[in-house]
Each structure stands twice: as C-alpha cells, then as structure tokens.
Amino acid sequence: MAEQRMAANGSAPLTRTEEARLAAFQVRIDAGEKIEPGDWMPDEYRRQLIRMISQHAHSEWVGMLPEGAWINAAPSLRRKLILIAKVQDEAGHGQYLYHAAETLGATREEMVDALLEGRAKYSSVFNYPTLTWADVGMIGWLVDGAAIKNQVMLAGASYGPYSRAMVRICAEETFHHKQGQDMIRRYAQGTPKQRQMAQDALDRWWWPAMMMLGPHDSDSPNTPQLKRWGVKIKTNDEVRQEFLDEHAPELIDAGLKIPDPDLYYDESTGHWVHGPIDWDEFWRVVKGDGPCNAERLGARQKAHEEGRWVREAMAAYAARSARAGAEA
Amino acid sequence: MSGLRNKDAAYENSQGSVQGADTQWPRWEVLKKDNERKPHQAVGSVHAADAEHALLMARTVFARRPAAVSMWVAPATSIHTFTAEELEQLPAATDDDTGPLGRYLVVVKSTNRRSMTFGDLKGEVEAAGVRAALALALELAGDEPVLALWLIETGSVIRSEPDDADPWFGPALDKTYKQQSVYSSRATASKDAAEGVPG
After folding, report:
1. Which residues in B lie closer than 8 A to residue A155 (C-beta atoms)?
2. Cβ contact (<8 Å) for A37 and B11?
3. Are the Cβ atoms of B180 and A174 closer than 8 angstroms?
4. How distant is the Cα of A200 from the closest Cα of chain B, in angstroms?
5. Fewer Cβ atoms within 10 Å of its own Cβ: the N or the C terminal residue of chain B?
6. Residue B6 pLDDT more than 60?
7. Tens of pLDDT along A107-139?
8. Smallest Cα distance from A82 to chain B, Å
9. CB within 8 Å of A212: residues ≥ 6 apart
10. Distances from the Cα of A172 to the Cαs of A178, A246, A289, B72, B154, in angstroms?
11. A68, A87 in Cβ contact below 8 A?
C-alpha cells in the first residue's frame, strides 16, 4: 500500500503490478466508468476523495448555522417555512456526504470528531456573520449559487457515491438558490430601507462567495491530478468564471452595485473580469481566524454535547430490545 | 464465503459493532421506491441504533421531497456486495460454497449514467447459500451489464407499511416552496443545476 501512495505522488518507482493497475484504472476513468466501493483505486485517489468529501460534509453541517440563527426572526410564516426546509436540507446533505466518504474507509465518528476538535477544514464562507435578514437571501443567491456551480461540476465526478450525492444535492439545492434570488430581487425593488439592506448584504457577501470556490489554479497543486482522475471536471478558476458570468449581470439587473471597482464585461471574450481577490483574508479565515470560526465550532460542540443524552438513550433502548429479542 | 464479501476492510469496519453513545451505530442501506411504476432503488445509507430508528432516519434523510411510496432498510452486515471485477474473477463454485437455503433480494447497478441512485431492485432469488444465489441473480439481470451487484438477505429487511405511505410521505407533497418552479424570476440562474438531474 505504501508503494501505491508514493507512486501516486510521483516520487517512487512502481512495481509492475501497480503500474498495470494504475494504467487499468486510468482506462476506466477515461472511458467514463464510475469507480464504486470495493473497486481497486490508487491510495492517493482515496485520500484526496476523503479529504474533499469530508470537508464538503462539514461545510453542509456548519452551513446550517449562519442561516439557522434567523429562523426565529423570519419576517413571515412562509419565509420561516422556507428557511427551516433549507436548513433541514443542509443537514441531510451532510448525511449524504458523510455516507459517501464512509464508503472510502473513513468513519462518520472520525470525521465528526475531527470537525468538533477543530482539526477539519470546512468552507471559509460560513465563518462570516449574518447581520441582517437580507443576509439570508444573499446567502441563498450567492453562496448557494456558487455551491451549485461547484456541485454540478462534481456531479460528473468519477467516484460513484460522490457523484450520486452531488446529483441529489443539486436537485434539492436549486430551490435554495431561487428563494434567495427571489427575496433579494424583491428587497432591491422595495423600500429605501430594504434596498439598503440588500446592497449592504451584497457588499459583505460578494468577496466571500468569490473566494469560496477556492484558490487560483496556480495555487491549487492538486487540481491537475484530480482532473486526470475525473474527480474534478473543471478547475477552481473555471467554476468561478461560470459563477461570475451568471451572477454579475443578474445582480446588476436587480439594481445592485457589485463591490468590485475593477469589474467589467469583456466583449471580445464574452466573459466578466473581476478585480484582485484578497487571498490573505481567505487563508486567514480558512486557518481559523475568521470573524465567526470560534462561534461556529462552539455551536457544533454544544449541539453535540446537548444531544449526548439522546444518543445514550437510543443506545440503551436498542441494547435492551436486542436482549429482549434474544431472550424471547 | 468471506472471499466474496466486500474486500474493503475499512468500509466493513465502518459498520461498527459496539453500541455506545459515541461510537459508530451500525450502518443500514436504504432502498426507496419513488412511485408504483418504479422499483425500489438503493439511495444511500444511515446510521441507527436499531431497525425502527433506521427506518425513521431513512425517511428524514431521503424523503424530504415527495417522490416516495415505500422505504426499506437493511443492515449493511446482511448485504453481500460484488464489484464487476470480483464477478469477473469469481473462482469456480465448490461444495464448500453451499449454504443453508435462504432468500435474497437482488440489487443491480447497470449503468454509468449520472444518477442519484446506486442500483435497482431486480427481484428475489432463493438458493442454498450466497454462491448459488449469485448465479440466479446474474440470470435475473439478463442481458443488462452488471457493474455491481448486491444480495440482501431478505429476512433482514425492515419495510415501511403500506399504511405508512400517506402520513410518512404525504406531507412533502404540500411543501411546494421546496420546488424551484414556485419562484418567479427573469433569470435562468439555475438551469445548469437542473442539468445535474437525470432526465
């Protein structure tokens, strides 16, 4: 197994068997086959997928928090129902993804522990605060909009369980995006106060949304191998460009001003061009020093502790039922 | 028959055997039937302390949208899994492969097309042991490619009752705010998200 790992890093000679296996694996990928649990796969393919999928799962779970904080303050029953359904979906999406990572040999326990102990990464965007109700709409429009771009790409991933989770998530998440867009469009055409709230939310969420699609390709060393293995179909910059090309004209059409003085539409390429991204901020937030990292982690730890008695009760009930069944 | 089991030891470990508050609960695979015209399909897994809990978890995780009329769960330990490679390199059956007579549900993955389900329930076979069941299962699959195959011990499957369908799956029908089509918009924002969804 050590040989496979080194080989995937390109740093050690392959045995003939390994070489043949790797070549056969690549043939399967290139033919558009899905790799399934139990199939042979390079160690590095497994390791990269566990990393990506578990981070994705953690992001769904932590992603419940910024918006969940507004459930009690939703301005109407309808908006409250929408928000509850959306947050509930994120919990389910976390479950789909933990399941997919588990098929690679990670356990849910290990993954959840890594999150609770602050050892795991999750999307930087969830470490920003939700200061007003308009943030709920802007998160739906921008953050879910960016996530969908990434997830549609990953729905084509070569690993079957990840691909299937992505297809299911995209189907459900489309409404998250739509409800946010719908809310912000209404606010942007509403009272001066509502317009101001929508603009303020855009000012604060624009850059975090642009950053959440990951570092530039030049700073993303794993991408070429992940593309060869069909895990990623597109690079971070390609997905970010899709996000920008779709959202820039829509936000402007809604009457909002995007907080990027360098932003322009290049008629010769048909693409929007954005100004420089503050990657120092991105890395600061990823590495734990964002506005809400401690609060998010604290909330997850609290939920885990407060649910302990429920888990203990269920385990006790299951054990008692099993004993009763054995005696009967 | 251990040679025919899923050889991914780490994945098997994830099924867990110790039932404590902070250890892994056993894993249960979930089969969902979207409507009367479709077969049950393998949609993913849940972790649960017991069968009843597993069925409740399955409903919460996999039926937040309307398409469901029936849901089954099976403990992962009662599922015999085969990859295409394992099926190709299957050693010849020997007398040792004969086991007690049992019934098995057959789930087959037959396409690499983009999908939110792993495979479809093809039917049930009765055979003396897993090896014999596998031969019948492959017959059941017919001319379809078999990219992966599961034999689920029928006796281990816990099923939702027909009477459950309305209270369990009915409420999602009224929650139209979960459908993107209720939000009017000039934008075509989510058209590519829809592309992730099979036809």
Report:
1. 114, 196
2. yes
3. yes
4. 22
5. C
6. no
7. 988 999 999 999 999 999 999 999 999 999 999
8. 6
9. A123, A124, A125, A143, A146, A147
10. 11, 20, 32, 22, 32
11. yes
Q: Tell me if residue B195 falls in helix, strand or coil.
A: helix
Evaluate if residue B91 carries a pLDDT over 70: yes
Residues of B in contact with A171 (CB under 8 A): 65, 116, 193, 196-197
ipTM for the complex?
A: 0.90
Chain B residues within 8 A of A167 when measuring between CB atoms? 114-116, 196-198
Asked if A64 has any chain B CB less than 8 Å from its own CB, the reply is no
* Closest-CA distance of chain A to residue B130, Å: 18
